[in-house]
Design a protein that fits this description.
Layout lengths: L2 H11 L3 H7 L4 H8 L8 H10 L4 H7 L1
Helix pairs in contact: 2-3, 3-4
Length: 65
C-alpha cells in the first residue's frame, strides 16, 4: 500500500491519523513523520509503523534479515 492509499483508507474509515496512531500505540508525531517521508522507516519504531500501516510488508523485514 502506498501512503496516499493509506490516507484514503483512513478517510474511508472516518479516522484521523491521530486516531489510528493512538489505537495502534504509536505517538501521532511519529506516524506523521513516517507518512510525510521525514523518517524513512528502515528500522525501529518508524519501521514498525510502516509495517502496521501496510506501507511496508512484513516480507521486507524477512528479506533484510
Amino acid at each position: 500500500m502506498t501512503v496516499p492509499r493509506f490516507k484514503a483508507w483512513l478517510r474511508s474509515q472516518g479516522k484521523t491519523i491521530r486516531q489510528w496512531a493512538e489505537e495502534n500505540g504509536f505517538p501521532p508525531g511519529a506516524v506523521y513523520r513516517v507518512l510525510n517521508g521525514v523518517d524513512k522507516a528502515h528500522f525501529g519504531r518508524a519501521h514498525e509503523i510502516a509495517i502496521k500501516a501496510g506501507i511496508k510488508s512484513a516480507a521486507d523485514e524477512r528479506l533484510a534479515a
